Amino acid sequence: MHFTILRFNQIDSTNTEAVNQAKRGAEEGLCIVARQQNAGRGRHGRIWVSEKDAGLYFSVVLRPQIEMRFLSLITLMTAVAVYETVKTFNLNPDIKWANDVHIDGKKISGILAETVETHEGLAIVVGIGINLKPSNFPPEIADTATSIESETGKPVDIEFLLGILTANFSRFYEILSQENGAENIRRMWAERSSYFEGKEVRVTFENETITGMTCGIEENGALRVKLKTGEVRVAHAGDVEQLRQIQSGL
Amino acid sequence: MLAKPRLNSSKEQKGGRMSENTESAKVKKQEEISKSKTRRSGKRDQPTEASLNMAELRELAELVNEHGFTDFEFENENIRVRLSKMTAAPVMQAVNPISAAPAFAAAAPAAQTSAAPAASDEATQEDDLYKITSPIVGTFYRSPSPDKEPYVQEGSKVTPETTVCIVEAMKLMNEIQAETTGEVVKIYVENGQPVEYGQPLFGIRK
Asked: Is residue A49 over pLDDT 90?
């Protein structure tokens, strides 16, 4: 995969810019990187705090040739790439379903992807935010967020991080695009996420909240949650919170 | 929600036109109901009865009520009947609008009520709607975020590029475009509900 990186000192949102570039015909691999976002976006209109140089704000344009039913695995694949990137800093990450990367239960990275209809066909923009410095989040979310610098005690060279991230992204995207790619990415995700099975969770949907035990993922990456009644529910969206760790009895 | 109709054992397997005799028509209607378990099959070559008169609707409602259903839905190639206590209004629509009207007129002139032609017109319109369907399995959202206005409402005019909703799957936000020009007349799914591949989301009158 070939990357072309467009850099901005300041931008509303790297995802919005990447979407616009895709509509104008940008090829796969076009990346938008900004030092600061004025309107960084999270899921469902939430704000991604994006102070200057306090995080990596990155979006990439993809033109995937994979089956539509596996398209959503791109976000799980991205989580695997970010997991490996964070691990390079001698940290011990976890993937919280579907694609947040955590260190000891604190969020260090978030991913948001969106589809774009273009004249050249369907494109996908994948946005990745990685917290580099603790100044990147306000005190009220300090308990649930962390940064590479907070964890390692050392400042991060953003170009070094970007190099590792793009290399990992390319590696796992190629795996997903190959034969049996969906299966391989699901397995790789499962190996890296404590949420894959045996985790007691609360899932908040738009109109409902459920609690239960995670029991694997569907072929498209949706989380299976077994309720106390034995019924298995499938989550495609929604906020997942860990209730308590279930000992695996090792 | 789809209540499998088990109203009567079928003694006669011929689905007939509506009889002029109300009692007989009722029995045949029940037989027709009991026969059909299939969803819309796409067959459009059976010019059988395609409407109910008010008396029959009332009978059907009473029967459904007796069995304690809050919702009853029946559909075959020619007709779809839905009774719901939530809306308290029987909704009737012909699946086969072309053959429906003549069949009704020829078979049951005496039973015709003023409500029936209106229902039939509505049914014709419903059947002609362009359906925007979900391209993936996911969760349906009508607005970009909970505090924002929906992308479209009933009555909104759309063009092919108009975004009508988002279907989210694993934080992949799929913006769905109308892909046609027209007016939104039906919204089939509630905000935040899961949707299947190919499930109709909106009905557009071109």
From this structure: no
